[in-house]
Amino acid sequence: MEKKSRGAILITGGAGYIGSHLALKLVAEKYRAVLIDNFSNSKPEVIQSIRALTRQDTPIWEGDVRDQSLLEDCIRRYEIESVFHLAGMKSVSESVSNPTEYYDNNVIGALCVIKAMQTVGIKKILFSSSATVYGQPLSLPITEAHPATRAESPYGKTKQIIESMLADLAVSEASWEIAVLRYFNPVGAHPSGKLGEDPFGLPGNLLPIVVGAARGALPEVIVYGNDYDTSDGTGVRDYVHVMDLVAGHLAAHEFVSQHGGIHHWNLGTGTGHSVLEVINTFETATGVTVPWRFGPRRSGDVATSYADPSKAAKELDWRADKDLKDMVLDSWRWQVREQD
User: Fold this and answer.
1) Which of 81, 185, 217, 250 is most deeply packed, by most CB within 10 A?
2) Choosing from 31, 102, 134, 155, which is the catalytic residue?
3) Full DSSP string of 275-319
């Protein structure tokens, strides 16, 4: 039976890595996806890929989420019912060297989104948060009930501030429906090989760097730190496939639509992989050698972080299906296609 058409959802940062994959998922589920992006770290060509894959003329507004009047116009024009707020700067290391830009972009941007929604009168929002809100983990795996600690980077602090704003909003107006999704480490690409992570300049995340070094676009992978208290001395993270991640958004959207209030979920696999394990898995899966070397630790990094995703499994019936091999192969397929 064909699915019925659903309402319109605005994706801020819709041309970005996760936003573009989310647009595909929303269209597949018969939602009307409307995108806004300032293209500061994404490319207009992404929109053509989305339209080609969905065979729909997905609307895109070029603009900054700190432009509240633009947001209000967009929400009214497309009769937006929900906002998936993904727009923001996302590099831990860059935030350490340029904190004011991160507070301006991320915190002020989120505030403008909330104020635009209040002005127009819609009260359903999903916020793209991060595992960095947990800071240095006090216990593993990390549950949503992990005690609040100081984030290790300005990036993580911006996410903590926005989460606090949303919590205060939920207290002040009980009619809000709010989902806070704490991503662990999104990787991978669309299985078609026609959409993936494509930032400007040097990538800030591990797997795109591994892929870039493997295909010769980057000289090598620098493994930051080899003296962490982990199995091989390198940092351990919970990597989650982007297609699993976007499925979690829709499950969370359905939940808050039915239950209201504010809710928080980890979106991760529950399994940690070290930097060297990612490199080794890539080499085994693709047969391509990756040049790498050790470098010093980076400010803002934690040794180990991986999720307890059982709350999302119980409440959303959501689980990550794809493993690390799937993640590296989809990333490689995307990058090899781009090179060709």
Assistant:
1) 185
2) 155
3) HHHHHHHHHHHH-----EEEEPPPTT--SEE-B--HHHHHHH---
